[in-house]
Amino acid sequence: MAVVVNKPLPEFEAQATGGLKVSNASHQGQILVLYFYPKDNTPGCTTEAMQFRDKYADFVKAGAAVFGVSRDNMKSHDDFKGKLELPFELIADTEEKLCHMFGVVKNKIMYGKKVKGIERSTFLVGPDGVLMQEWRGLKVPGHVEEVLKAVKSMKAAQKKAA
Prior knowledge:
Oligomer: single chain
Radius of gyration: 15 Å
Keywords: Antioxidant, Disulfide bond, Oxidoreductase, Peroxidase, Redox-active center
Order of helices and strands: EEEHEHEHEEEEH
Helix content: 25-40%
Pfam families: AhpC-TSA
Subunit structure: Monomer.
Structural class: alpha/beta
Organism: Comamonas odontotermitis
Number of strands: 9
Enzyme class: oxidoreductase
């Protein structure tokens, strides 16, 4: 089942670094940021991870949990996380279950060959488990600030409603 904006996330469960299990229900009551990236230790993905790292305290202050997702295995994620001193966990989606659920697996041309790759994308899930916003096929510069702005406005809307 695919994800749809303004609809609850379908059921899922995934393993993350730090021995964490992440599911559609594991972060109820909290804003969830899931960012999908192609591969650990590549230039764009490293830059993106460092930008989420550098703004992490702001995300937490705004009530959000951040997770990076790629098809890399747990060992690769642990190394990447340690090397960059990432304060958030990375989900190892080696079987591409989450990638397919979020529709981020795309055909790409790499060195003249067709390959399946991950389209850099970010998804913002509300505290009630509903997908609130998505950014697909994005460029790294300025993106993390844009997501943080969306999280802060979601938090402000929650306070008004309370």
